[in-house]
Amino acid sequence: MEYKLIVAEKFSVGQSIAAVVGASDRHDGYLQGGGYIVTWCIGHLVVLVDADQYSEILCFAVSCALPYSL
After folding, report:
1. CATH number of the domain encompassing residue 9
2. Residue 70 counted as domain residue
3. Which of 8, 36, 39, 50 is the most exposed place for a label (fewest CB within 10 A)?
4. What's the domain range around 45?
5. Domains of the chain: total
6. DSSP for 40-67?
7. pLDDT tens-digit readout, 11-61
8. Is 38 exposed, middle or buried (0-12, 13-18, 19+ CB in 10 A)?
9. Is the pTM of this model over 0.70?
């Protein structure tokens, strides 16, 4: 059987997602069921960085799409 993997940011979010997709079988570090394996990390998956850490090219491309002038 094929499974779809879902990685949540923390345990509580993983539990919530698992309840929705029907992954109710508990294992060591993951929940499984309904064709899904739901696991989680400890800590944040994504961190914001300061604007000065972006390259000039990226900043120009993003600013072109914004509805205001710089």
Report:
1. 3.40.50.140
2. no
3. 50
4. 4-65
5. 1
6. E-SS-S-----GGGS-HHHHHHHHHHSS
7. 999 999 999 999 999 999 999 999 999 999 887 767 777 767 766 666 665
8. buried
9. no
